[in-house]
Amino acid sequence: MLQQPTIDQNADSENQLSPASPQAASKKERLMSLDVLRGLLIAGIISADCWYRSFNYDWESFDITDCVFPTFLFIMGITVSLKLQQQDRFQRRTWYQILQRTILLFLIGNVLHIEERMFYMISQNRFTGWRIMGTLQRLSICYLTVSSTNILITKLKFHAIFLALCLTIYLGFMHGYAVPNYYLANSPNSEIICGRAKLNEECNFGGFIDRMVFGNNSKWMIYPSDPEGLFTTLSSLINAYAGLVFGRMLQQKKQEMSSSSMVLKCIEGGIRNEKLFRNWILLSTTFVILGSLFWSFDPIIRNIWSVSFAFFTSAISGFAFSICFYVVEILNISFINETLCQPFIWLGRNSLFIFVAIVAISNFLFGISHNRSYYSIYFFFASFLGEGFLAALFAILLNLTLWLLVAYLLYRKKIFITV
User: Fold this and answer.
1) C-beta atoms surrounding 290 within 10 Å
2) Which residues cross the membrane (predicted)?
C-alpha cells in the first residue's frame, strides 16, 4: 500500500548532509542554499506561468524561464547524492522509499492532468483521456534512474559511461532515424512529410515515439510532440547527473572536514568551501563548452530537450547553485540569510506542495469559469494599464505575493509537506 504524502512538523531530510560516521548522525546540517534556490525556482514558476500566458514563443525559442524545470532536475540530483549512500543499497527500506516516491510523483502528475480534463469531459459528457507524461512524471523517472545508479555505482566514471550511452541513443535516433510520413489526427487529409534529422514539432523522433506509444491522437499526450515525452527523458538525465556530481563533490568535502580536528575545521572550513565554489564554477563552465560543441549540430530546443539545451541549462543551474552557496554558506551574512533569503526559504521548504497547489487551483478555476486565476489578475491591471508587459508584471507580483503568504503561514506553523 502506498504511503500518503506526509506532513513533517520538523524538516525533511533531503537537504541534510549525510554524516560521515555514526557519531555524527545527530549533527546533520541543513543546506540552506538549496532551500533558497528551490524558493527562487518556485518564484520563477509563478512568473513563468504568468509570462507564458501573456506572450507566445516559437518552437526553437529559448528564455530564462526555460531553466526552471531543468534546475529542479539538477537539485534532485544534489539531494539524491546527499541522502542516498552506497551502503544503503542492501537495505530493503531504501528501495521501498525510492519506488514509493517515484510512483507518488508519477501519480500526482497524472491526477493534476485528470483534473485539468475533468470539467471538459463532464461538459462534453464523453471520455476524452488525459496527458500521461508531464513535469512530475519526468521528474519521477529521472529520480528513479539517478537514485538507483547512485547507490549501485560508486565511481563517477561509470555514471559518465552510462550517461554517454543514453546520449548516444538519443542523438543516434533523433538525428539518424528516418521518421515516416503520417497524417495529422485532426486533419486526415494533410500528410506530414518527415524524414531523417528533422527536429521540428511535427517530425522529431521523440514525437514519433510518443505517437507510437500513446496513439496518433491528442488524448494521451500533447500532440504531435509532447515536451515531456518518453524518449526525450534520456537527454534530461544530463541535468540530474550534473546535480549528482555537484552533490558528490559537496559530500566529499564534508567527509574531509569530518576527519579534521576541531581547530582545523575552524581554520580550513572557509578555505575548503571557497575551493569547492571555484571547482563548481569550473565545472559549470565545462558544461557551457560542451553545450557549445553540441550546439554546432544540435540546436537549443527545449521541447525536445536537445543535448545542447541540457548542457546549457545544467551550466546555468550550476552557476545559480554556486552563487547561492557562496552567498548563504560562505559569506554567511546574517542580514542576507535571516532577512533577504527568508521569503525564498518559505517557498523552498514546501516547493512540491506549492507547485501542485498552483497547478490544481489553476485547473479548477479554468474548469468552472474557463479563466485561470492569472487572467483575472492580468485583465484587472490591463483595464487601466493596457494589455502588455506592464500589466503582466503587476499580475506576476501580486500572484507571487499571494503564494508567499501561503508559504509563510506553512513555514511559521512548521508544516513541511513531502512525499
Assistant:
1) 18
2) 61-82, 160-179, 230-250, 280-297, 309-331, 352-369, 389-411
For residue 357, give the nearest of 190, 115, 148 by alpha carbon.
Answer: 115
Residue 157 and residue 241: Cα distance in Å, rounded? 12
Q: Tell me the pLDDT tens digit for each residue of 248-274.
A: 999 888 777 665 554 444 444 456 688
Strand partners, 392: none
Single-letter amino acid, residue 278: R
Domain boundaries, the chain: 29-58+333-419
Integer Cα distance of 243 and 233 in angstroms = 16
Give the number of other CB atoms < 10 A from CB of residue 371: 11
Decide if 116 contacts 19 (C-beta within 8 A). Answer: no
Instruction: Kindly report the pTM of this predicted structure.
Output: 0.89
Residue 70, preceding peptide bond in cis (omega within 30° of 0): no
CA 283 to chain centre: 20
Q: How far apart are CA 247 and CA 288, in angstroms?
A: 19
Instruction: Look at residue 394 and tell me whether its pLDDT is greater than 60.
Output: yes
